[in-house]
Every structure is written in C-alpha cells, then in structure tokens.
Amino acid sequence: MKAIFLSGVGLFVMLLTLTGCDSLVQDVDSKNLPVVSRKLVVHSYISPQDTVLTVIVTEPRAVLGGQASQDYYGTPVTNATVELSDGTRPVRLVYSAYDRLYRATPQALPIRAGTTYTLTIAAPGYPTATSQCTVPAVVLPSQISADSVTETNFYDRLLYRARLDWQDPAGQTNYYRVSGVGLALVKVSYAPRPNAPLRDTSYVVSTSLGFASTTLLSDDNRDGGAFSSVRGTVWKGAFPYTPQTIDMRLDLNHIDVNYYRYQEALERQRSVGDNPFAEPVLIPSNIQNGLGCFGAYTKSSLTVKIK
Fold this sequence. Notes:
It is built from 2 helices and 17 strands. The chain starts with a helix and ends with a strand. It has helices spanning about 1-25, 255-270; strands at about 40-45, 55-60, 80-85, 90-95, 100-105, 115-120, 130-135, 140-150, 155-165, 175-190, 200-210, 210, 215-220, 225-230, 230-235, 245-255, 290-305.
C-alpha cells in the first residue's frame, strides 16, 4: 500500500506540474503579430585584385522548422536584377547557373582603392535592396617568416608554419584578415594513350593553410603599431606524390568595417553552436531592405620557399 500511495502522490504532482505549465501557454492572435516582409539575402566582397565580380543572392531561410537548403548560402534567387556602380558607371551582373551567382568581369567596372561602390538588387516579390562600401587602401606586409616542426599525435608528422608581419598605418581605423596557401610543385609520369611511352609533367598543387585561432584583426588601441599574424600551417602529407618544391604564401587582406563586423559575428556564432546556455549572437547587416554583407578588401602577399 505504501508503494501505491507514493505512486499516487507522484502522479498527482506530475499532473499538477503539467497543468501549471499548460497555463503558461497562451494562444496569440495572428493579427497581433508584426508583419515582416521577405528580404533578399546578399553576399558580395569586391577587391581590385579579383579576376571576377560576384554577387550571391539567395532567399531568406526560416530560423525554425522548414527544409534546410543544400546550398551553403541558401536557395539562389535567379531572376534578380543586380547592378554595381562606382557613382558614374553602372554595370549589370549576369546570373550564372553553373556558379549559382551573379557575375561580371572587372574590365566592365574596375575596382579601385578609395572608391565607394553601390550595389542595387531588385527581384520580384522583394523590396529593392541597396548597399555601399568603400575599398580600403593596400597595406603591404613587411616580412614573412617560416619554420617547421614535427608534431607527435599517435604518429609523427611534419608541419610547415609561416606568419606575416606588417606595420599598421597610423591615424585611421584598420581591419585585417590573414589567409594563405601552401603551393607544391609535383612531377608525375603518365601515358597519353595505351602502350605509349610515359611522359613526365609537372603541375602546382595548392592547399589552404590552417590557423589555430582567428585571423581577423583590428588596430583598436594599437593604432600605428606593429602586427604579426597567427601562424598558418600545412602538413607535408597534404600534398600528393613527392613535391619537388614547396612554397607558402600568406595574404594580408585589408578589409573594410562591413567585412570585419560581419565575419567576426559569424565566427562568434559558430563558436556558440547549439549551446542553449550561450548568449545569442546578432549578425549585423549593411544591406538596406535586405540581409547579408557587401564589403571590400585589398590584398597583398608574400611567399617563402620551404623546400
């Protein structure tokens, strides 16, 4: 009887708890909900060093529920009118079904440091989205240094490492992002056709460098100071065959504030992940009547030979 009594008490408490929770749930009249128009999602980063001008335009995605798109940025909007202008000359970007984005050649509208560009996007069913950004000046790195280290983690492997140094221009706010690649020249033999003599050919294989921490930097409280990047690393085994030569190239990207704030927020959001106890990260946008980022950067590079 005692066990039955305790079970009855537990059941009563559980029903009381569920009833209390149910009382906290209230239906909200849909007429009282704010009306939010659909907005285009835009991603574009322009640079004088680019070989093509690109703009990605996608549909907005629901925060909760729904079927996730298989595209990294989302479902592309293919019927938009995308125009980029330097204030005097506009150029129309054309949608590429292969690349799933809008593109134009830099010859149609050269990108120059110090110039402000305007992006305008119109698509049926959406308000016209606009944005502006100014291309920052080139900042030249002063040197690149490299070394190698053997890492032991169940087995030994050789890592090549490199870092970049530069001087921050004083009297202005600057933002940076460092990136890099490992470049290996490999030689292989192949037969151009069955039973034909082997031929030797060489080609360059590239692989992105890994960085242990963020490569986004600001000169806040360091105006005019000397900067060093975190080390970029590449594993020797990342290259196929036996490389004849190995180079490491580090790129100093001088980015505008739009680029910096958007990417910095994305990095913080990724670090939070699905942690329910973490503070939500608000992603900024400089797209009027839209979402996303329209930013600019200039790039300068240094290369060091490893092998």
